Amino acid sequence: MFKYKKKLGQHFLRDKNIARKIVEIADIQENESVWEIGPGKGILTEELIRYKCDLTAFEIDKELIHTLQARFNKQVKLINQDILRTVWESFFPKGKIKIVSNLPYQITSPFLFKVASYSNKFSRIVIMIQKEVAQRLNAKVGTKEYGVLTLKMQYYFNIKYEFTVKPHLFNPPPKVDSAVIKLIPRINKPEIEDEPLFWKIIETSFRNRRKMLRNNLKTILSAEDLMKLSENFDLTLRGESLTESEFIKLYNLISIK
Ligand code: SAM
């Protein structure tokens, strides 16, 4: 009998219709390279192989790898590795890759940041994550969900919230709702010369959400620089009310000072 490993985020999807819907959103073409993260018992894998794609699946749990090997044999390249420790470059094909996954929730943030750092290698990413995180990724400016994660992921991707999935559709059921989202790399991504500075400004602006920009930014700018900046930018605003282009304006003013 298989014992679920909670620390590996093992909540297996039970509903084949949901699995089919997730894979449909990925719009997979024959021979296309697809990565599945955490195939588990293979409910998504089974749908994916119907599309005759070039499928590589990364599963950390050795016990599951044996079952998957017996079930899918040569139809899938099974890699028994932790996706966060895998050297991604060694698996990159010539063309672009699609990712399809019901992600183990505990790796969501580091996984998304890694995907973002290779965003030009992927053509589409369809993942199931916690609903609350999906809402943050998809948040609109001025809402309580809007923050650093929103700005970071929307900088690299166009994001679409597809649908919500209730806990009873998994075995064992997680405590919270899940959601399927689609990420497509932006073609019009803004060019930022000093990205570390750009992200530092954004992170500092959200350090204390209730504080005005002036108070948050004083941890990285001198009183004199803040004074000059206030002539061209309203520093009584809060980070949560600034769009990406307003943050770019703020960054430009700070970087040319
Ligand atoms: N795809 C299956 C499904 O939809 O039923 C399983 C999804 S389950 C939420 C997450 C899967 O990811 C589990 O099979 C777990 O063992 C695997 N996993 C957890 N951490 C991992 C990691 N760091 N790298 C690769 N696989 C991981």
Overall tally of domains: 2
Largest sheet: 7 strands, mixed
Strand order of the largest sheet: 4-3-2-5-6-9-7
Class from helix and strand fractions: alpha/beta
In what range is the share of β-strand residues?
15-25%
State the helicity in percent bands: 25-40%
Number of strands: 9
Q: Provide the CATH superfamily of the largest domain.
A: Vaccinia Virus protein VP39
Number of helical segments with 4 or more residues: 10
CATH topology of the largest domain: Rossmann fold
Question: Would you mind describing this structure in some detail?
Answer:
- It is a single chain.
- This protein is an alpha/beta fold and 257 residues long.
- It folds into two domains: 6-185, Rossmann fold; 195-255, Helicase, Ruva Protein, domain 3.
- Helices cover 35% and strands 19% of the residues.
- The chain is built from ten helices and nine strands.
- It has helices spanning 16-26, 43-49, 62-72, 108-117, 131-137, 148-156, 195-205, 213-217, 223-230, 244-255; strands spanning 12-13, 33-37, 54-58, 77-79, 97-102, 122-130, 157-165, 170-171, 178-185.
- The strands form two sheets. The protein has a seven-stranded mixed beta sheet with strand order 4-3-2-5-6-9-7, sandwiched between helices. Strands 1-8 form a two-stranded antiparallel ribbon.
- Helix 1 packs across helix 2 and helix 7 (195-205) crosses helix 10 (244-255).
- The longest helix has 12 residues, at 244-255.
- The protein is elongated and about 70 Å long.
- The relative contact order is 0.11.
- Bound molecules: S-adenosylmethionine (SAM).
- S-adenosylmethionine binds at residues 8-13, 37-40, 43-44, 58-61, 64, 82-84, 102, 104, 107.
